[in-house]
Amino acid sequence: MKIGALRESYEGEARVAVTPSSATHLQKLGHEVVIEQGAGARAGFSDEEYRRSGVTVVPTAAELIGQADVVAKVRQPTEAELRQMRAGQTVISFFYPAQNAELLALAKEQGVTAIAMDMVPRISRAQKMDALSSMANIAGYRAVIEAANNFGRFFTGQVTAAGKVPPAKVLVVGAGVAGLAAIGASVSLGAQVHAFDVRPEVAEQIESMGAEFVFLEFDQPVQDGAATGGYAAPSSPEFREKQLAKFRELAPQMDIVITTALIPGRDAPVLWTRDMVEAMKPGSVIVDLAAEKGGNCELTVPDERIVTENGVTIIGYTDFPSRMAAQASELYGNNIRHFLFDLTPKKDGVIAHNMEDDVIRGATVAHDHDITWPPPPPKVA
Ligand code: NAD
């Protein structure tokens, strides 16, 4: 079958869903690969490089959609793209079905099969297709690089002939995939790192990375990550008060705050309030990775970098993976080609959309003129 990658139409998106290297793997599965002209340019992959990997380059998006059996994308398909698609065709991309009900209805109407990379079940077998994790890992790392670039001081402590330099103090709020990557990058730059999460089971992971878990004295059990599938649920008002009191105590001491706290299906919890920002030292930096979901910091402006009156920089960019487009595309391209590996069981270039397979079923949000989201719970843990 023909797998085609579009040039992303979303403004500022530099990633691409198929790279020259992932195209080679897709061909080994018996598929042909096509890209829209310039699809990889912003990620550093020229049309020429694709051609050397056996990929056909077509001049327009319309031509690509016309030719491809499977259209691969990073961002969710636009309405215009879906309207150009035909029954039986597949689109594979991030989709966020809960936020894109209209696109989902259109996919159903068009008879397009939509595979949402954000809905790949987070079970061990599917880790190689887990694009949420591969992108969150990049976002966490890049958040630290942006913080360091805006901080203007050393992260590591130094004793030099010219004087002593203290290590930067970093607080990471939320220690999921992005938070752990931010902890790793901050520790390796030599900072003193503190981290907090509502899921107590991550304390060990935080400490094993060389950071200090911010401990909250709280009598009742906070929450059982296992009971929520590894994800957080909203905190009780009492817990939240304790948490905010602790952050108020830490605010004047921290140089860098990186917030990554998310609760699936909800707006991000506001955890870093105006008075905490006001209590921070001039020159401090906040990077809010939850900006797209409303932000963990009360003053975050999505997609902007602002400096407050007391000299605190707040970064609300929402495109961290795209800022490392080459590697983000390599990893995302790998996630996609692993998914296509499972869709091509005989490696003969024929796609078998097996809805009995937990991973395929979980990620398929529209199929055969039907909306297939939300999926039934997976049979295998
Ligand atoms: P996420 O992006 O939904 O949330 C980020 C973090 O914010 C989470 O650790 C969450 O506990 C934390 N958080 C929520 N509310 C908070 C609050 N009020 N204060 C502080 N922290 C708060 O999560 P994620 O990074 O996508 O993943 C979370 C977990 O999912 C992982 O740690 C893991 O257990 C599981 N996971 C499993 C797999 C797999 O098995 N393949 C892959 C990835 C993640």
Explain the layout of strands and helices.
Layout: E1 2-5, H1 20-28, E2 32-36, H2 47-52, E3 56-58, H3 61-67, E4 70-72, H4 79-84, E5 90-93, H5 101-110, E6 113-116, H6 131-151, E7 158-160, E8 163-165, E9 169-173, H7 177-188, E10 192-196, H8 203-208, E11 212-213, H9 237-250, E12 256-259, H10 274-279, E13 285-288, E14 305-307, E15 313-315, H11 325-343, H12 358-363, E16 364-367, E17 370-371
Strand numbers in spatial order across the main sheet:
3-2-1-4-5-6-16-17
Name the average pLDDT: 95
Globular, elongated, flat, extended or rod-shaped: what is the shape?
globular
Low-confidence stretches: none
Beta-strand percentage? 15-25%
Which structural class best describes the helix and strand composition?
A: alpha/beta
Based on CA atoms alone, the radius of gyration comes out at: 22 Å
Instruction: For the record, give the distance between the C-alpha atoms at the N and C termini, rounded to a whole number.
Output: 32 Å
Description:
The chain has 381 residues and is of the alpha/beta class. It has twelve helices and 17 strands. α1 (20-28) runs parallel beside α11 (325-343), α6 packs parallel to α7 (177-188) and α6 runs antiparallel to α11. The model has no long low-confidence stretch (mean pLDDT 95). The structure holds nicotinamide-adenine-dinucleotide. Nicotinamide-adenine-dinucleotide (NAD) binds next to α6 and α7.
Please name the defining characteristics of this protein.
12 helices; globular; alpha/beta; single chain; 8-stranded mixed sheet; binds nicotinamide-adenine-dinucleotide
